[in-house]
Amino acid sequence: MKEDDGTGPPNRELYALLHLSPEASDEEIRRAYRQWAQVYHPDKYQAPHMKEIATENFQRICEAYEILSDENKRQIYDIYGMEGLNSGLELGPKLNKVEEIKEQLEKLKRMKEQQKMSALLLPKGSIVANLSLPEFLDGDGIMRGMAMASAVQSQLSKSSALSLSGNLGVEENSGAGAASAVFRHQIASDSTIEFMGSVGLGSLIGVQMTRQLSLHSTATLGIAKSFHDGSINLSNVWTRQLSDTASGNIELLLGPQSSIGVGWQKKDQNTSAAGEFGTNSFGISARYTRRFSSKSHGRIAGRIGSAALEVEVGGGRKVSDFSTVRMLYTIGIRGIFWRFELHRGGQKLLIPILLSRDLNPVLATGAFVVPTSIYFILKKFVFKPYYLKREKQKALENMERTATQIWGYDLQARNVLLPYISDVQEARKAAAKAQQLLENVANRKRNKQQETGGLVITKAIYGNHKALKKGDELRETNDELASQVLDVTLPLNFLVNDSGQLKLHDGVKKSGIMGFCDPCPGEPKQLHVEYTYHGERYEVAVDDYEELIIPQIAHRV
Question: Which residue windows are coiled coil (predicted)?
Answer without folding.
Answer: 424-451
